[in-house]
Amino acid sequence: MTTASPSDALLQPDELQPAVELTAKALEQLDLILLGRPELHRMVMVGVLSRGHILLEGLPGVGKTALINALGEVLSLEFNRVQFTPDLMPGDILGTHILQETDAGGREMKFEPGPVFTNILLADEINRASPKTQSALLEAMQERRVTLMGATRELPFPFFVLASQNPIELEGTYPLPEAQLDRFLFKLRVDAADVEVMDQIIHSRRRGEPPTAQWSMSAQQLQGVFDVMDRVYLPRPVSRYIARLAAATHPDSAESSDLVKRYVNYGASPRAAIAMAEASRAYALISGRPTVGFEDVQAVAPAVLNHRVLLNYQARFDKVDTHGVIADLVGTLDEAGLDLPADMEVGPGDA
Amino acid sequence: MADSDRQVQSLRHRIGWLLWLRYAVVLVAGFAFVYGTAVLIARAGWQVERQPLAWGAAGLGPLVVAAIWLARRRMPRPAVLRAMVDHQSDAGGLVMAEHETELGAWRNKIAPTNPPTVRWRGGPRWVALLVGAAFVGVAFGIPDSVASTHNANQLDVSQQVADLHDKIDTLKQQKVIDYEAETDLVAKLDQIQKDASGADPSKTFEQLDHIQALLEKAADEAANDAIKEAGQLADIERRAEDLDKALDGFDPETGELRATDEAGDPIDPKDLADAMSDMGKMIDEAMKDSQAFDKLVDKKLADALKKLGELDPEALKELNELDEQTIEKIQELAEALEEMEADSLAQVDAAGNVSVYDPDEKLKLDAIKRGKKPSDPVAVRLTTEAVFRHDPTVMMTLDLHAFGEGERIIALNEENALAVYKLDETAKVDVTRLGPLDDEYVIVVQPDGSAKRYVYSPKESAQCQACQGGAPQKAFRMAGKAAQMSKAQLQAMMQRMAEQGLIDPQQVRAMQAASKPGRGGVNRGRGDAAMTWRDPTSEEGAAFDEKTLPPASLRSIKDSELIGASVGAPTKAEGDRSSETGALAGAEADGGAANRQIVLPKHRGSVERYFERD
Predict the structure, then answer these.
(1) Integer Cα distance of B566 and B584 in angstroms
(2) In chain A, which residues have their Cβ closer than 8 Å to the Cβ of B94?
(3) Is there a smaller number of Cβ atoms within 10 Å at the N or the C end of chain A?
(4) Distances in whole angstroms, Cα of residue A151 to Cα of each of A110, A242, B74, B295
(5) Around Cβ B446, how many Cβ atoms within 10 Å?
(6) Backbone region of residue A169 per phi and psi (left: phi > 0; alpha: psi in -120 to 50; beta: other values)
(7) What residues in A contact B18, CB-CB < 8 Å?
(8) For the structural domain made of A11-205+215-230, what CATH number should be given?
(9) Is the minimum CB–CB distance between A328 and chain B shorter than 8 Å?
(10) What is the pLDDT of residues B208-233, one digit of tens each?
């Protein structure tokens, strides 16, 4: 057994429990505001705790914007919404310099911050903006700062981009470049609510207006949760599993599944592996555990990988999507990497 | 040690054991197939014995070691097994973290779980191992004759060749054949064995029969010579003994013979003189035939005996010329002859090992050697066989049980019925002195082992009380000619004899079994065997002989038109008529194939000049 330094010491129950309770409360509020989406809320919370950006994909009217509004409300974070349109310019997001007359009668360029200077930026229908405007978000998303006319300005902490895009009505849209897609921690699919949920919404909410949050997490509490999450322990076999999983998305990998070999053109980047590790930590925290297990990785892997794996045309012909390929890969890849002969297997112990 | 550590260790042991077992089974199964194949190849290609091949099983030892090495290479690391235990027990990473960091209060929250189970689906490999083991068993178990493919058509005549080798050795030891003949025969035998092919077994067996016949001929000649020599020696020996006995009472002073014959009467001096003369002649004759005898006997003894035999019987006093030394020599001669007779019989004995009657020859010769000693019926029977070995069918006409007091012989009468005839005894002879047989002589071996030669006597036969019709003389000749009977005739006769209890019915059955059609190849045995048809001759590889056609024929073919192909010979079209007048009278197309040109006389000169051109 290796001796851990105090900073690396495993979170003890009394240290972990407050953070778990806070996240549980936040999730509870989200579940109250938006009905019938506990798993989506859980993954969004994982993304927030991981300090990653989330791309929500779904049809209009399924609650994407409402979810982001509720999240900002619960987390007591400032959020701005930008409706992306084809004529939206980078300056409309990042901000611009305006020539103003000073009190002394002179003129100077004054920076007017754009909507990106906030905690949560809701980029609604992000794929409708031009690539130039989409690219304006690259630095903000990756480095959480904005550079204009040689001046670099830090964005407030925390900063999340929660983008949405409509999978239909592709006319007049600009698919997100791979570089930008890779900067999103998750790509979550928001499906339509089922009958029971819709019935409940119609019955309990006038004009569908969600209730306001009854509890919100302060910035200090959120920072505390971030600190705890940073100390969630990632064992070496799990980190190796994450690395093997990311590597196995490449068709030329020794451990890739048959579906990957057949349908994948390009696999996930190292950034995906890092994102998977962070998201697994957050998932473990939400689950009330101080260590990351294989099941945490498997829970977040589809959301992390599905927008980072590029399928070939054969997959399109065979109507195979990334979710199916990732699910198959997660199901077939041995977690521990036992590498036993094919005719040997290790199963659970007898009950 | 933590509970998880124990689980990891236990899991590691089980995986290690199963990995070793798996590799051992795979390697041993593979080894079994390779080993079995090697055994088959070694046995088929090089006729290697089973015992040295069994040492190949020692290869299992290295395989077990190799299985250990492979299992150790494939053995998962403890960290991996710990991860497996963590995952199987839904510990959420705590088991893994336990080995990497201090768990603190979380240690108590790790729920005890059952260790993971390890399973090996080794059914197909076990089956492969069993099949491989069975294959090895089959490779070892199949008989050599099946396993040997050294020469697919090899004919195994090793036993026959070994027997012939033994016979050659016997003849060589008895100096029946010399070194050169022995070398030549051995070389021939080896060549026959080497060339023995199942494709033509009759050829091989013919060659072996030829060698066998050569050996038998040499052995028979040697045996005959030895028997003849033994007979001569026995005669001389008897004469020498009689002479010795007669001379034992001889008084040189008075010239009187005090010895008496078996009846107690004084020996007639004339008989004594004849005996001496005969013995002298016999010694002369024996010295010509036998080198050994020539060395043994002093020529002077024979001369002296002949001289004594020529004396006037009344002048027996002249016998005093016969000195004591001559009498002693006669005594010594009798003793030496006994030894020589024994040697000759030993040579016959050895030659008998080469005879065609191998299995029984020993007994036959034993019976001969026993001579006048009482013998059992089997020995008598065998002695009879030995006497008649040149014509076994004659033996069939003699039944020892029917001989009674040794005065009768069984033969066939005119109606092919069995008859018993009484014969006239002419001489009491030793079996070793018998000459060639003919119709006039019959040999009867009595139950006491002695043999007698009889000459047919019509007078005596007519008085035979047991005769059963027919002319005895004719029937007797028929019996003598039984050797010339066909197998079917002989078989019928044996059947009748068996029905009357004169021979063993088993002999009839044995002969019938041996007379089934198809036995004995193409030149022996019955010819009415059923014909068996095998597959038709393959056309594969058959081709027409190519023949270059003359240019004129080629042109004809080039200008011809195929109107059809006939599988039969061309036929002459109806309506063709030959010219009935002129030089072409009688000329016609013959069967469509011949190209007969009739050249008119006025054109012959042109044709001859054409073919005379260069």
Answers:
(1) 30
(2) 289-291
(3) C
(4) 12, 38, 58, 147
(5) 17
(6) left
(7) 344
(8) 3.40.50.300
(9) no
(10) 888 888 887 887 777 667 666 666 66
